[in-house]
Design a protein that fits this description.
By secondary structure, the protein is α/β, with parallel strands linked by helices. It contains 13 helices and 18 strands. 28% of the residues lie in helices and 21% in strands. The longest helix is centred in the first third of the chain and has 15 residues.
Length: 459
């Protein structure tokens, strides 16, 4: 159900995206009216959260049923003060390490006179079940103290001045909460305040907070991101490369699917992000992950003098390679505003191709390469597949298991058979802007973030 305005984009980006979703192949297949309808649904659904929270269960440590029961008990304790503390947890019918929690929303929450303004990223997190951390608060009432009930608003355009007492700019209401800190503590001049600043008690979208909940047994991850690990199909004893590994969710999933037997090499350019991967691996009790702070574009070398235990690696070093490429992120939900330019949007395709060249060289003959993004453009998805098949004759597309999303999008010149082998999670295809469709578990596969997966075999 649509209650927020469509995602806000720069006009040049909006025009570009419209040209993608109304390209000649699409118009010929579905007609201008249906193409326009899908595009408008995309703009609407991107500003709203998916209808299910997806939790990946650490089935390498405990059976799914045991994790299901422990999670239910933990969430009941968390919600013990609520009049309705029933939490519905559903196993996914096809993905054996996924638990689904229906999101209740939008709910009829009355706005209060006291307003707190948070940054857009913080507001997005609240819509997925998070509390408001102090660092996300931009403005609050002048005399706000611990225990005050306040309404929380998300600053859509980033125009609110930090420390303001009021804000009349473009904002959206995300729910009500209780102040856990005084205003003076949040906006102090010394060390930045840390911890929960506003505890959400009446969120517009009700979803459990997973802060500190069974950290070794559960991992919050969007369903398509979990599907990627299964599509890659890692096996015990293999050597696998995750080329752009941060924050480590897919890296850890690969290691878990291997039963922690073998080696998962995780590369990431940022040292801070490497530390986060290591923390996640430690938390999930995974020993087979090796992390390196390294640019994956330069991760392959024929020079014996350069070769050590870590990168660069000789060609054909890995049984499987995951290239979850840096992308424009246009499929992320909820996201009410994006400020990047068309030039920035177009900068990702050449970067992805440089990474692709390295990925193919590092993959053994007979090995599997999975390419994925969390965006919706043709240039970063189907066009990359068409380019890869032309550039690397050794690659062939492979069927994906599980295949929960739609087939690939028309517009890149791929054949119907090739499109059927691709997996595009397209939330606009199932989005209903007016009706409350209820909690239908079948929606979990379609009402997701926008995401793309291609699987190749190196012959």
């Amino acid at each position: 159900m649509s209650i927020f305005p469509n995602i806000s984009l720069k006009p040049e980006v909006m025009d570009y995206l419209k040209s993608v979703f109304m390209n000649k192949e699409v118009l010929a297949a579905v007609g201008p009216r249906e193409a326009e309808c899908r595009f408008q649904k995309l703009l609407s659904c991107l500003s709203h959260p998916p209808s299910y929270t997806c939790v990946r269960a650490s089935t390498h440590l405990a059976p799914l049923e045991e994790i299901h029961d422990k999670l239910g008990e933990e969430l009941k304790r968390q919600m013990s003060s609520s009049s309705d503390n029933h939490v519905q947890i559903l196993p996914h019918p096809q993905v054996t390490d996924v638990l689904l929690l229906p999101v209740d929303g939008p709910r009829p929450v009355k706005q209060l006179s006291s307003e707190v303004v948070v940054g857009a990223q913080c507001g997005n997190a609240v819509l997925r079940g998070a509390h408001v951390f102090a660092q996300g608060i931009i403005a609050s009432p002048k005399y706000m103290k611990v225990g005050d009930m306040v309404s929380v608003f998300s600053d859509l355009n980033g125009s609110c001045t930090r420390g303001a007492t009021t804000f009349q700019g473009k904002k959206v209401f995300v729910g009500n909460g209780v102040a856990e800190m005084d205003r003076s503590s949040i906006f102090c001049t010394g060390e930045p305040a840390r911890g929960v600043g506003i505890r959400m008690v009446e969120p517009l979208y009700q979803s459990p907070s997973f802060d500190g909940v069974l950290p070794s047994l559960t991992f919050l991850q969007n369903l398509p991101s979990v599907v990627v690990g299964h599509v890659l199909g890692p096996r015990p004893g293999e050597r696998i490369l995750d080329m752009c590994a941060a924050p480590g969710g897919k890296t850890c999933h690969i290691a878990a699917l291997m039963g922690d037997q073998g080696e998962v090499v995780a590369l990431e350019k940022s040292r801070n992000k490497i530390e986060r991967i290591c923390r996640n691996a430690h938390m999930l009790n995974l020993q087979s992950i090796k992390t390196f702070c390294f640019n994956s574009i330069q991760a392959v070398s024929n020079d014996p003098a350069q070769l050590t235990e870590g990168p660069p690696f000789p060609p054909e070093s890995f049984d499987r390679v995951l290239l979850d490429a840096p992308c424009s992120g246009l499929g992320q939900r909820p996201n009410m505003a994006l400020s990047f330019s068309l030039k920035e949007l177009r900068s990702y395709q050449p970067l992805q191709r440089k990474l692709f060249h390295a990925a193919v060289r590092l993959l053994k003959k007979g090995g599997v390469l999975v390419y994925s993004t969390c965006t919706v453009t043709l240039a970063e998805n189907e066009e990359q597949v068409a380019w890869a098949l032309h550039t690397f004759p050794c690659l062939t597309l492979q069927p994906q298991e599980p295949h929960l999303g739609a087939e690939g999008m028309l517009g890149a010149g791929l054949s119907p058979e090739q499109l059927r082998l691709l997996q595009r999670f397209s939330p606009e295809l199932s989005w209903d802007q007016t009706a409350d469709t209820g909690m239908d578990p079948r929606r979990a596969d379609s009402d997701t973030i926008g995401f793309f997966i291609a699987k190749f075999l190196k012959n």
